[in-house]
Amino acid sequence: MTDHPKTWHDGHKATLTRGQRAADIMRNGMGSWPFVGGFITFMLIWAAINTWALATNSWDPYPYILLNLLLSMLAGLQGAILLIAAKRQDAIAAAMAQHDYDTNVKTKEEIELLMAINSQQLEILKELKELATIERHGVIDPAGI
Fold first, then answer.
1. Residue 95: how many other CB atoms lie within 10 Å
2. Cα within 13 Å of Cα(100), Cβ side
3. Alpha-carbon torsion 39, 41, 43, 49, what sign?
4. Under the phi-then-psi rule, with left for phi > 0, alpha for psi from -120 to 50, and beta for the rest, what region is 64?
5. pLDDT tens across 66-108, in order?
6. What is the pLDDT of residue 113?
7. pLDDT score recorded for residue 141
8. Which carries the bigger pLDDT value, residue 34 or residue 143?
9. Quick check: helix, strand or coil at residue 4?
10. Of 59-63, 74-78, 84-88, 137-141, where does mean pLDDT reach its minimum?
11. Would you list the DSSP string of 89-142?
């Protein structure tokens, strides 16, 4: 069995309520081409049934007032669902931005530490170079050290 580390997204999804999950599922469904196509098909079938199939006894004759009422209610409900989902997406974006900022701050600290170590190493190399130059010119006797 392999233990995969949980990502931030996995942890976040685990904290969602049923309502938030439902809003995400509905947002994903309503924002798709199959939904648009199905919705147009539904409206065409509604108009066809009420105009031709039930010409004498239709439950919603032209100008389709009942259909307009259903569409208005659906638009109101969709607006609320989309706002809920958008609010969640904003919260996710803010959390991701904070995570990126924290990562950048930590990375900056680590780079500054590496730069300090690099400076120390350059100083040591400079000192070694000076010692080697002095030794080559015979100022220091290597056997006498």
1. 12
2. 6
3. negative
4. left
5. 888 888 988 888 888 888 788 888 888 898 899 999 999 999 9
6. 97
7. 56
8. 34
9. coil
10. 137-141
11. HHHHHHHHHHHHHHHHHHHHHHHHHHHHHHHHHHHHHHHHHHHHHHHHTTSS-G
Token duo for residue 32: 């798709």
Contact of 81 with 27, CB cutoff 8 Å: yes
Provide the whole-model pTM. Answer: 0.49
The answer to whether the CB of 34 falls within 8 A of the CB of 117 is no
Peptide bond between residue 142 and the one before it cis (omega within 30 degrees of 0): no
Nearest one of 66, 32, 31 to 49, comparing CA atoms? 66
> Which residue is listed with tokens 């070694």?
128
**In the block, residue with structure tokens 């010692």:** 131
**Residue that has been written with the tokens 């066809």 in this structure:** 48
User: Any idea which residue has 């000192």 for tokens?
Assistant: 127
What is d(CA 100, CA 10) in angstroms, rounded to the nearest whole number?
17
**What does residue 140 show for φ and ψ, rounded to 5 degrees?**
-115, 135
